[in-house]
Amino acid sequence: MKKVRSRSGKAGLPPGSLVRVGDATALAPVIKLFTYTAEGFTEQDLKNLEELPGANALNGIAWLDIDGLDDEKVIHAVGERFCLHPLLLEDVLNYDHRPKLEEYQDTLFVVAKMLSLDEETGGIDMEQVSFVLSKGTLISFQERPGDILDPIRERIRKNLGRVRKHNADYLLYALLDVIVDNYFLIVENVGERIQELERKVTVRPGNEDLLTIQEIRSLLITVNRYVTPTRELAGRLNTVQSSLIEKGTRRYINDLQDHTVYIADSINTFRDMLTNLENTYHAGVNMRMGQVMKLLTVISTIFIPLTFIVGVYGMNFDHMPELHWHYGYFTVMGGMFIVSVVMLLWFRRKRWL
User: Fold this and answer.
1) CA 298 to CA 219: how far, in whole Å?
2) Mean pLDDT score of the chain
3) Residue 121 buriedness (CB in 10 A; 0-12 / 13-18 / 19+)
4) Residue 6 lies in a domain
5) How far apart, in whole angstroms, are the C-alpha atoms of residue 265 and residue 280?
6) Do 279 and 245 sit in the same domain of this protein?
7) Where are the alpha helices (DSSP H) in the chain?
8) Which terminus of the chain has fewer Cβ atoms in its 10 Å neighbourhood, N or C?
9) DSSP label at 160?
């Protein structure tokens, strides 16, 4: 169940107040600065706020990578060095935002959600990441250290792909693309779980299958909650009239939008499959129940004449012809057996069995 994050700490405060809305991690922020060109790059671990550069002190393309937002002083210092809007900084500390794009005077502010599968519980781990794009600079804010963005860092270090050959807008696209690619991993995992469940439900549905169907449906609802606004985010990023997004990058962003559309369609398909699986489960359970009821009915029907015979010979009258006959017991039991066999053959002929 998703935890409701309290906003009561912001009550009565003016807009732009730096108050964290979300769960604290008690981890010190990790700040890295990547500066690169097509020819080379530098990577710095910034140990204190005094080492933070200003916007005018950077050469080449710069990526200020901040992991961990428990210290509001860091957010405030970054805002001052790069002249960021107070409302933007306030949104950075609100971990409960939906994916979105906002335009400010010289910057674009993007909020995205990183999703990953929890291997122990099978649920979804969610982390918010915020991006601030300005001319030649990208700043990223993450809730906690450790993420899925390491492939982009390696591309910068080893000059792989196109990252170091393009501007900061392409870096923003590359980071968003990695986030969306991880959505594919989740959706593919869900698809495999549905296929396995489909085989099981079709052969022999069990009581635990209905619970599994509900769990997977809840997981898809959670993923879709972030995929839909991410699709809107990619569409708006592709059409926003900003000089910060170059024409060449828009082609890649359009591809990113196509990926989100595909993921959303896959989620809708899986939800339909789960509905069909649930119907199949109930149909299988009803069929098994019908078979059990039919078997019990046949047994009861066979015992009706047998009960009648036993009842007749259990009346204990003195002058019943077969009571004192030497072979009476064996004759009655044999007759009961013949009646049972004849009834079973009759049911089989009528295809009731």
Assistant:
1) 45
2) 84
3) exposed
4) no
5) 22
6) yes
7) 72-81, 86-92, 150-158, 168-203, 207-239, 247-312, 328-349
8) N
9) -
Question: What CATH number does the domain containing 249 carry?
Answer: 3.30.460.20
Name the band, by pLDDT with cuts 50, 70 and 90, for residue 4. Answer: very low
Task: Give the residues across from 128 on adjacent strands.
Answer: 113
pLDDT average, residue stretch 195-224: 87
Q: Given 259, 283, 307, which residue is the final one in a domain? A: 283
Mark which of 230, 255, 283 sits at the end of a domain: 283
The pLDDT score that the predictor gives to residue 23 is 55
**Both 135 and 38 in a single domain?**
yes
Residue matched to tokens 């003195």: 318
Summarize the confidence of residues 59-87 as an average pLDDT: 86
Q: Which helix (H) or strand (E) covers residue 67, if one does? A: strand 61-67
Question: Domain of 311?
Answer: 294-349
pLDDT of residue 20: 53
